[in-house]
Amino acid sequence: MDNSRLAYLSKARRVVLKLGSAVLTATHGLNHLLIQRLVAEIAALRRNERQFVLVSSGAVAAGVHKLRLGEKPQGIPQQQAVAAAGQSSLMYAYEEAFAAHGLKVAQILLTHEDLASRKRFLNARNTIFTLLQWGVVPIINENDTVATEELKFGDNDNLAALVCNLVAADLLVMLTDTDGLYARDPREDPEAPLLKVVESTDPKLAQAAGRRPGYLGRGGMASKIQAVKKAAGLGIPSFIANGLTPGILGRIFAGEEVGTLCLPHAHKLKSRQYWLAYNVAPEGAILVDTGAREALVRQGKSLLPAGILEVFGGFRRGAPVRLVDPDGQTFAVGLTNYSSRDINRIKGRKTQEIAQALGHKDYDEVIHRDNLVIFPEFGEG
Fold it and tell me: 3-class SS at 33?
């Protein structure tokens, strides 16, 4: 029993549980026996007043089996149609499994727009909070049927991390078909050790991502590491563990050294900061010099035109944009007070020169500190 793990787990009253395709699917569609086993473990843990919000894959696999296609189609319309057909089968499997323990479920399908719009974000949050209050288990998936490629979450690992903010979770657990994160890609190095505890800023995570995609299901190792970093930014820990191992959830919550524990950041983003950093799709980018980066990250300053080197993309006033340093790292996201056209005209200039360059001056700052979020891994001073 690991007391450090128990310290985090004892505080985890609301848990986002991500179940990957590698766990939920068998050779022919859904693995119903495994779903029933995992649901039984969830039901047992709920008796300790824990709430679970599921982010579940499996709709496409269920659809392929239901429609007798033999394999997953390649075209986007075909994949969306398969997901639409399989979603009802997936929910029915959960409905039956949870009903055996006297529990009800509710399906919630989200698109990126639902979380990017602050109004829709809050509406979805209130709906889920109501379901949890009623004792219903929310089961969330991306609305594959209507999501366009540019507005997709990318994978359910990323979606699970965003859901943590949506539901104010205390813990993220991602179940896959391997025992956790390894120091190196175990397909390339079978002797690579399992990482029992990592920090999201640990350089070993870059090695753990490997050079070959997809050995942890659809999202792959890289997407799980991205999810871990996003959860860490919320100040919550994450676990990555093997969902094929019987009793895995009970063992995690008992504090056993199973899977990989990913530690949270000491600096926690507030909900609105997290929403701006990860839910909103940037419409462009601003390259800043080293001095501006230090002023933003270490001194908590606003972005002034003098520190801007280049502007990328065409965007309006008030748009979300990425801030990039001279090394090419995106270290922040903010809402601009000026359009890309105007920023190009004032970049490198002093604040008192804005009016002369534009014929007007609405703001001293290109991005005000209140509308700027530094990614936690870069550390605010």
Answer: helix
Residue 370 has pLDDT above 90, yes or no: no
How far apart are the C-alpha atoms of 177 and 379, rounded to whole Å? 33
CATH of the domain at 225: 3.40.1160.10
Indicate whether 211 and 314 sit together in one domain. no
Buried b (16+ CB within 10 A) or exposed e, 3-24: eebeebbeebebbbbbbbbbbb
Q: Write the pLDDT tens digit of every residue in 41-78.
A: 999 999 888 999 999 988 888 888 888 887 777 777 78
Judgement on whether residues 29 and 61 belong to the same structural domain of the protein: yes
Paired tokens of 95: 């409905």
| Residue 328 belongs to domain with CATH number | 2.30.130.10
| Higher per-residue pLDDT: 180 or 184 | 180
Give yes or no: residues 37 and 99 share one domain: yes
- Torsion angles phi and psi, residue 364, rounded to 5: -75, -35
Q: Are strands 238-242 and 197-199 parallel, antiparallel or unpaired?
A: unpaired
C-beta of residue 310 within 8 angstroms of C-beta of residue 326: no
Average pLDDT, the chain: 85
pLDDT range class, residue 248, cuts 50, 70, 90: very high
The contacts of residue 137 (CB under 8 Å, 6+ apart) are: 42, 52, 53, 54, 98, 103, 104, 105, 106, 131
* 189 and 232 together in one domain: yes
Same domain, 168 and 200: yes
Provide the β-strand partners of residue 26. 29
Q: Which domain covers residue 117, as residue numbers? A: 3-273
DSSP 27: T
8 Å CB contact between 205 and 224 = no
User: How many domains is the chain built from?
Assistant: 2
Q: What is the DSSP code (8-state) at residue 367?
A: B
Domain shared by 229 and 204, yes or no: yes
Distance (Å) of CA 43 to CA 73, 181, 241: 35, 27, 19
How distant is the alpha carbon of residue 340 from its chain centre? Answer: 28
- Ordered strands of the 51-56 beta sheet: 105-110, 137-142, 51-56, 14-19, 171-176, 238-242, 260-263, 197-199
Closest CA to 166 of 174, 178, 158: 158
